[in-house]
Specification:
Strand content: under 5%
Largest sheet: none
Order of helices and strands: HHHHH
Number of strands: 0
Number of helices: 5
Shape: globular
Distance between the termini: 21 Å
């Protein structure tokens, strides 16, 4: 299963569990929020690492850029579309 699918499965699990949601929200105040988030993911059985979060965001962003205006340099800048850490919380 790819990282995006794992995150979607995890998001569905967190939506139904208030205590678990609070644990994920606490990662936002950590000195390294993404590392804390990934550690919690692995603790719950989801093998997600920091580089996975970066890669899935960059891959998604690159695919979106390629799909607009032929993927040229004049493609619009997409705000926050490559940050799957933040997108995870938007979905909650």
């Amino acid at each position: 299963m790819d990282t995006a699918a794992l995150l979607e499965e995890l998001r569905a699990r967190v939506r139904g569990d208030l205590a678990l949601r609070e644990r994920f929200m606490e990662t936002r105040t950590s000195a390294d929020p993404v590392a804390a988030f990934c550690f919690l993911c692995r603790e719950l059985g989801y093998e997600i690492y920091e580089m996975d979060m970066i890669s899935v965001g960059e891959d998604f962003y690159a695919a979106m850029k390629r799909s607009t205006n032929g993927g040229g340099e004049n493609s619009p800048k997409l705000h926050m579309e490559d940050d799957f850490y933040e997108l995870f919380f938007v979905g909650l």
